[in-house]
């Protein structure tokens, strides 16, 4: 009855011959692990077992809300989901499992971070057996399919009507990539399946966003000329800049947002100073406080205080598109201002006023009321 | 497992008065739902709906848009963009709003009268953000003295904190061993905050897990909802009072002078003694699984007979919940029932606002949880609903007030009133079963002369329990069925002189 050796031989040597031995294989246990993804989804939306096969289904609730898991007769998912809904106030005490001959097996409510195991023997009758969470409302989108057949056939993922619609395609994050301008080369040009907004964003525009390399209070700004930068409101400074694209927000906007926006393009600047400006005694401790921004011809002009003194910064592309112009205003300043740099930050500097001294621009109080720093990408200086 | 569910089912049957639908009257006769057309290309996960003084709707959405809608022309227009998960709007004027988003409370203003916002000014960001996805912020709402209130979610144990955070990190705000409970590693996660007109943001009440909804009643009492989960046996409406703790431990580390270490390690009895219970519990799976914004009906009858009561959105069901409160023993407590359900209403009922005509506008959201997208409008048709208007505790039971006179023979039939009581355990586990669930016999029923009030005498009343009432086939004197068959009263305190 248990020709293990034979099976092992066939399994390793002649895979297709396995099919002939489906009944013998029934004695091996197929282990299926199902977790939960954010957004009411099983991570496995389908799996295959052979008729009569022993199955060990390990259901781990990796979500932050409770779920159950019912396996139903073929074609019975919606009927069971609706019956579960009709349990109404009786639902909680019944684990939302309706009494129905169409429910073949069930795992009662599993709380977050808990695991339950279900052992069963797959039906002899080949077919597509749905599995579903029947907590109120979940079952319309949170389901999957157990394929029971001898040969392991399943339709192509994109044609599989037994799994949730949003899982039929590999999520193509390219569909959500944003380019500042549409002059990216043709093959890279993105055909946006679904617009990201009810309007076409026109650079400059920005998002408050979670992004790698900055605090959670960051802003990402798209500029004309395929340039972008991240300005971090927690520390009130330009943190980094890149060219060649803007952001891929697809992960961030999917589900609950447990993700970061991805930079699209190539980083050419990263701030490595303690703070780019020093007012007066530049070795002293400086306190910054973010105040907000105004849009001037759609360009954000950031406003913050540095040791209580108002500072404004507006960032534009430089004239030849190789970097940025940072326009500073310190209207109430009456002290010398230093603009600090770091030789490894990827750019070279020019200032509209002041003197370059030991890697810093020194500006007299009068000059500092209104000045511009031009940052140009160094040859071969990509970060 | 099959055996367990069958047993549970049989127990369910014993307590079951029949599998009738919760609603007998066709609600669409008294209230009508309308779906608002949304602009093409908008992912309309709605974070807030409010009205401008000029009668336009203003709404914000997950991808950062703030848009206005002119109901007469059905035209949408972009006002502002770029917000990070905006989930609340307070209207200052036709050209100025306060918007809460992940990093801060922001003033958004059109300063040059071109209809597009050009000033995005920080109002306050004096709270921490760790980058944990669950750190949503809600509000603001304003009291009569000009103070603003916002509420801050706890961080999710299903996520983590980022390498760079804003604010001081206190590792004690998370349970040891990290088994996935919500936590508070940066300041004031899990708190309701008060921003006084001088700009100082102060934490006032702690213990919140996911307070996705904050609002005032007619008397200026502040309320916040919270969602079932770890430490929250079932979702609740809390009467928010300064200095109180509402049950989820992580936030306690930010209490001034806190010196008791990791609050998750305190004995349950200690935490329980510190905690203020929900004024109204929403029994899970019965009334609400994920309640949202409480909104007081200030329409003075334009929205029907429930003026002064609170309406509460529900994410997981196609439902709006109604709450009625009373003061017993000095504290607010009361009852909740499904106010409107189905009939075209969608799920994801995240935000509520009354329009100038007294209709209720409902912003819907999903954002990875159960829900829907878009905006709907619920209007009173003028036909008086046949419903429970109020439920009040008495010394010997409850008094029910109805919107219409009742048919005396069905209304005085004892068997038409089936009470059960149960309680939810305060525990670290995710949610709570119903404990000590028992039928409570009704021993006497009396009807008032105007046939609108029913006094019920119960065999016993116990504080700390939910009293769930299932109504049988009671008719109005016009022969209509009642809109509601179920109502749940949270009995925290007994009336003086009970039994």
Overview in brief:
With 383 residues, chain A is mostly beta strands.
Task: List the keywords.
heterodimer; A: 383 residues; mainly beta; Immunoglobulin-like; six-stranded antiparallel sheet; five-stranded mixed sheet; 8% helix; elongated; disordered N terminus; B: mainly beta; eight-stranded antiparallel sheet; four-stranded antiparallel sheet
How would you characterize the overall build of this protein?
The complex is a heterodimer of chains A (383) and B (499). Chain A has 383 residues and is mainly beta. Chain A folds into two domains: 4-167, Cupredoxins -  blue copper proteins (Immunoglobulin-like, Sandwich), CATH 2.60.40; 173-377, no CATH class. Chain A contains five helices and 27 strands. In chain A, the strands form seven sheets. Chain A has a six-stranded antiparallel sheet with strand order 19-20-21-22-27-24. A five-stranded mixed sheet of chain A has the order 4-10-9-6-7, with helices on one face. In chain A, strand 19 (288-296) and strand 20 form a beta hairpin. Chain A is elongated. By secondary structure, chain B is mainly β. Chain B has a domain at 386-491: Immunoglobulin-like, CATH 2.60.40.1220. In chain B, 5% of the residues lie in helices and 37% in strands. Chain B has an eight-stranded antiparallel sheet, with no helix packed on it. A four-stranded antiparallel sheet of chain B has the order 1-24-23-22, with no helix packed on it. The two termini of chain B are 43 Å apart. At the A-B interface, strand 7, strand 11 and strand 19 of A face helix 1 and strand 9 of B. Strand 19 (288-296) of chain A pairs antiparallel with strand 9 (119-124) of chain B, so a sheet runs across the interface.
